[in-house]
Amino acid sequence: MSVTAEKVKEEPGIGTRCIRSQQFDLDTLYKLCELTDKIRNICQTKEGSNYISSLLNDKRAMLYFKQPSTRTFLSFQNACHILGIKCSEIRDISTSSFMKGETELDGVKTFSQYVDLIIMRHTSTDFVNLIDSNLNNNMRIINAGSGTDQHPTQALLDFYTIYKYGFKNKKIAFVGDLNRGRTVRSLALMLSKIDGMKLYFIAPNGYQIKSDILEQLEVPYELTDDLESIMPLVDYIYMTRLQDEYGGIEETWDPDAYKIDLNNVNRLKNNAIILHPLPRRDEIAVEIDNDPRAKYWEQTANGLWVRVALIASMFNISADDIDKSKDYNKIKRLYLK
Fold first, then answer.
1. Is 198 a catalytic residue?
2. Annotated catalytic, 121?
3. Annotated catalytic residue: which of 7, 71, 81, 324?
4. Which of 21, 161, 222, 317 could bond 312 through an S-S bridge, CB–CB 3.0 to 4.6 Å?
5. Is 276 a catalytic residue?
6. Does 71 participate in catalysis according to the annotation?
7. Which of 178-187, 245-254, 285-294 has the largest mean confidence?
8. Which one of 38, 40, 121, 293 is the catalytic residue?
9. DSSP conformation letters of 120-178
10. In order of start, what are the domains of the chain with their CATH numbers?
11. Is residue 81 annotated as part of the catalytic site, yes or no?
12. pLDDT above 80 for 137
């Protein structure tokens, strides 16, 4: 099945859906980053954590993960716990009525009666859109990864990580299997909103980013298969793995041509940032973990807090609302720096 990223009209705010990265305007993205910072700061103390966990302790969420996941699943599960949301999960459909012939749509419609939020990861590129169009608009839905198409919450945490280091007049290289790399598809669309950004897509023939993304970019970009020549030019380099769980591509893949190790890492600027959505294989050598430019573990930690802020926003909690809270101001006066 060919995957096409549709052009999406941006609406102010987040609302009840997080389906695709195009839906976020810059104002919303910056407000989400602000809320992420605020919640992280508050949760530095037990008293602050208790306050945050009281915000949504009357809500329930379902994690519907039909595609294998540990990192994203645990990140969302713990994000719910931080907000006081009670979680249920479906990860093995062999124990459900799907085995009796029930359609997935009917199953998820049933499950939606029990919860306030559905967090969904699926092998299909289209199933989350089917759920989006068939569930009541009051049901909050988060796309936690849809086939080879989109991974908007990964893009949000990547955006937040880059936000912490700066956007102004920056260049970013995306490296690897960009043809099937949904994280790159989502983040490229998000970064395209930033004036002064330039994007480089580095991949061998057959693995390059698809035209549906390129057609929507509003910033300059270049396509190449030459990693070594681009490394000295960029401020951020975003490495990705071979996505062979979706089947093979006839063109050959030379892993040595698309990796960072001790032999080439110093081709990067001294202040460059190395990112990776993880999990990794050989595209970043373990020895690079000790390089001060390696920020992918920080990137992973950011994911938890961005998802906390996203969920809070979907329930209409903003940084301003927290600032006006009497409970928060009492905690702030007594416990927070």
1. no
2. yes
3. 71
4. 317
5. no
6. yes
7. 285-294
8. 121
9. EEES-SSHHHHHHHHS-TTSEEEEEEETTTB-HHHHHHHHHHHHHH--TT-EEEEES--
10. 17-150+303-318 (3.40.50.1370), 152-299 (3.40.50.1370)
11. no
12. yes
